[in-house]
Predict the structure.
Amino acid sequence: MGRLAGFRYGEVARKLRSFGFAFDRPGPESHEIWRNSETCRKVTLPHHSRDMAEGTLRAVLARSGHRRRFISESVTFRCRIEGELNR
């Protein structure tokens, strides 16, 4: 399991909002188009109930331009939470 495994739609959508993205319109089937008005970038985000595939999340983050930021913030947060749970 890699560093980007185990993220759900809600977690990724929250992070995209913090990066300046907003829901733009529905996409094909169960996908959504999110747009950042400052950078004019668009990403297609799958809206599924299960965990997002690691490769899919990697592609979404690459299109958003915030892959490294997402990884550093999320891994730090998850390590802190797991450390608190293991006490």
Remarks:
- The longest strand covers residues 21-26.
- Residues 9-85 form a domain with the Metal Transport, Frataxin; Chain A fold (CATH 3.30.920.30).
- The beta strands are 21-26, 31-36, 41-46.
- The chain has one domain: 9-85.
